[in-house]
Design goal:
about 725 residues; alpha/beta; 7-stranded parallel sheet; 24 helices; globular
Length: about 725
């Protein structure tokens, strides 16, 4: 066999690749306080430092003077600090005001709740600020701009990166250290094969890292980020698929049967399956009947599209096979809803079921666990309670997890471990944009149901200014007079809750002091119960929120479902799992404080039966100003299509937190823009599948560098598969 000869250039490149794994302390300027600061930022190696990309860039190629800076546009202005003042317009709010001057004028810059800035800046400092220029009270102004204190190395005509820094390490020092790292590493080996890079028109990784830190133009930054985004999605896809293969190594799938129980369930359903439901059933049963592979499938459906009916068919197949299934829901409300919807149909078909939650009595729990262990129980519905060590199945062959983004990956694996080789069906009523599904659920095959099998009366949504709440109350009164029920949703449980701890949705309108306009009055469940009791003295009103015990939650839900409660005042705990056909009106207080997906899920609680539903979203946003928050509410009012709204939510938010990516054991997407990078995500998804077809364990000579990258980023999650 001819042995490959390594050229001096290739040898040097391989040597420089090793530099990436060296401790960051080996670099020039890194010692003492600067070394400690880097480690606080999670930077341990040279490679970590190179992936610590700039948070933003100061574009000195297009700098403006204060006089020429156009109003209403984001500009970079370089000026000198004239004075720094600290103001306290209200308790717990500190405003740092900085007056900047140049030869052409004065610029007032305000920073909210950042008192340390007053200590960092002093008169005479040269400052670059980047933000939207406004005009008020006789001055051009910027509110909370990005800023950088400049030194002699910062000059006009350059694009200066601004890296994340911390105490003991300024942005200027970070630039110097990163520059040293780039020079030291220079050109190193690229784990992505050259043919694949060429096909996808990607920069080499060494060039991409140099360009992302020290670009010659902002267009170069875009190309560099695309390469890093591609790497991020590709390695995540490989890790997810390899993790799944590792967990199922050497395990024989259960070949499920489709016999009398499945037929009986289909006959017992109160409606015929729609074409989309039938297609999903066919895909799921085909997977479950396979003797070659274990099912890993995502069932994605909008509110009211009938995912539960599809899941019941899969559950019945376990009874036909003589095995067991477990359905795990994130809340007792949702678990009880599943049990009340499914158990009558399943039991009529001869399938034995039980419900296990935190409020299940000790005697009932013992009875259930005994029947489960003896194989006398076919289906177990439950919450996190099913994860207990004492919950032992006779033969678990199907795991169904609803709203998986509310569970950690460890919890999913813990449940699957109770039945090695069990098929997995993940369900969610949260519509997911295609790019997010490909990125985060890339290891799952997907079945989608977009339309309701039974149309129902539907829901009409109106966004109202807070001053027009009488319209909502009028609809509520009319519904009560017809014997119907209603929800009122609030962001707080009680008035004493810290409003500052609430998530501020992107684009929320701020007042002149930088505080959310709606923060002037946020509605709470406790105060709203009292308020509504005076408005509707004849109504039976109850409260529901996460601070109630599981037993009290069950009691309230049962009373509302049974018609003993007219108005249910709640937090978003009712977002999923509450199905009360007589509930026809929903009022959502402080609607601007909720995400688009949450608002869509909430309004899906009304109009589920033959009676039409009305959802009134009350907002304190100014009708004269267009913000991201107002666009979000406008989209909700115009569309009832959850998938359309999911895409719109992604466009408005530009963040990878629509589902909470912590579900994958700490995995977050740092470089990917889920809205703009559709082509990158789809390419990486396709390439991951192709690479694993070519080398299932990434152990070939061409793919070994990829395997090492997966191990470095996610740990040796496929150790058993690779034999490593």
């Amino acid at each position: 066999m001819t042995r490959a000869i390594m050229t001096p250039e290739a040898s040097a490149r391989l040597s420089r690749t090793g530099i990436l794994a060296q401790d960051v302390s080996r670099l020039k300027y890194v010692s003492g306080a600067r070394e400690e600061a880097l480690r606080r930022l999670g930077i341990e190696t040279v490679g970590d430092l190179l992936l610590h990309i700039p948070r933003r860039y100061l574009d000195f190629t297009r700098g403006y003077s204060i006089e020429t800076a156009p109003l209403g546009q984001v500009c970079t202005i370089i000026a000198t600090v004239d004075r720094v003042m600290e103001k306290r317009p209200r308790p717990r709010l500190i405003v740092t005001e900085v007056m900047l001057v140049d030869d052409s004028g004065v610029l007032r810059v305000s920073f909210f709740k950042q008192p340390w800035i007053a200590k960092q800046l002093k008169p005479g400092d040269r400052l670059a600020v980047m933000g939207k220029v406004e005009f008020a009270y006789g001055f051009k102004q910027m509110a909370s701009p990005h800023y950088e204190r400049l030194d002699s190395s910062s000059s006009l005509g350059a694009i200066v990166p601004v890296h994340g820094a911390c105490e003991g390490l300024s942005a200027a020092w970070m630039r110097r250290i990163v520059s040293v790292a780039c020079e030291t590493a220079d050109v190193f080996c690229d784990p992505i094969p050259a043919k694949l890079r060429s096909r996808r028109r990607l920069m080499s990784i060494s060039r991409a890292l140099r360009s992302i830190h020290f670009p010659s133009s902002l267009a170069e930054v875009t190309l560099a980020r695309r390469r890093l985004a591609y790497d991020e999605v590709l390695y995540l896809q490989l890790a997810l698929r390899l993790r799944n293969d590792a967990n199922l190594l050497g395990i024989t799938p259960v070949k499920h049967m489709v016999k009398e129980h499945v037929s009986a369930v289909l006959k017992s359903l109160p409606f015929a399956l729609s074409d989309e439901q039938q297609a999903a059933v066919d895909e799921i049963l085909t997977d479950m009947q396979s003797s070659d592979r274990i099912m890993n499938r995502l069932l994605l459906g909008d509110v009211g599209t009938g995912k539960t009916a599809v899941a019941m068919v899969a559950l019945a197949s376990c009874a036909d096979t003589g095995t067991q299934a477990c359905v795990m829901a994130p809340t007792s409300v949702l678990a009880r809803q599943y049990a009340s919807s499914c158990m009558p149909v399943l039991e009529q078909a001869g399938v034995r079921c039980a419900l296990l939650t935190g409020s299940t009595s000790a005697a009932e729990r013992d009875r259930i666990l005994l029947a489960l262990g003896c194989g006398e129980l076919d289906i177990l519905f439950g919450t996190h309670a099913v994860l207990g060590d004492d919950v032992v199945f006779s033969h678990l062959s199907l795991v169904v997890i609803d709203e998986q983004h509310r569970f950690g990956v460890g919890q999913r694996n813990l449940l699957r471990a109770k039945g090695p080789g069990a098929d997995l069906l993940v369900m969610t009523a949260t519509p997911i944009p295609r790019t997010l599904a490909l990125s985060v659920y890339g290891d799952l095959e997907t079945s989608i149901i977009k339309h309701r099998p039974v149309a129902g009366a539907g829901v009409t949504t109106r966004v109202l200014a807070d001053a027009n709440r009488d319209i909502a109350y009028g609809a509520l009164r009319a519904a009560l007079e017809e014997g119907q029920q209603a929800y009122v949703i609030c962001p707080l449980v009680c008035e004493k809750d810290d409003q500052d701890e609430l998530d501020v949705q992107p684009g929320l309108e701020l007042d002149e002091l930088g505080r959310p306009v709606s923060a002037q009055h946020l509605h709470s469940v406790e105060s709203e119960v009292e308020h509504l009791s005076h408005l509707f003295p004849e109504a039976r009103i109850a409260a529901l929120h996460g601070r109630l015990s599981p037993r009290d939650k069950d009691r309230v839900i049962d009373a509302f479902r049974g018609g003993e409660v007219d108005i249910l005042v709640a937090t978003t705990v009712v977002e999923v799992g509450v199905d009360v056909p007589q509930a026809t009106v929903m009022i959502i207080e402080n609607g601007e404080r909720f995400g688009l997906a949450t608002l869509h899920q909430l309004r899906g609680r009304v109009g589920r039966g033959s009676l039409p539903g009305s959802c009134f979203v009350l907002s304190q946003l100014s009708s004269s100003k267009h913000t991201v928050a107002s666009d979000r509410l406008e989209s909700l009012e115009k569309s009832n299509d959850g998938f359309t709204l999911a895409e719109e939510d992604l466009r408005l938010r530009h963040e990878g937190e629509i589902l909470g990516l912590r579900q994958h054991g700490g995995v977050t997407l740092r470089f990917v823009d889920l809205d703009a990078d559709t082509d990158i995500i789809e390419a990486a998804h396709e390439d991951a599948r192709e690479l694993l077809r070519y080398a299932p364990t990434l152990s070939s000579q061409a793919t070994l560098p990829l395997r090492l990258q997966v191990v470095e980023r996610y740990g040796n999650i496929f150790k058993e598969v690779s034999g490593g």
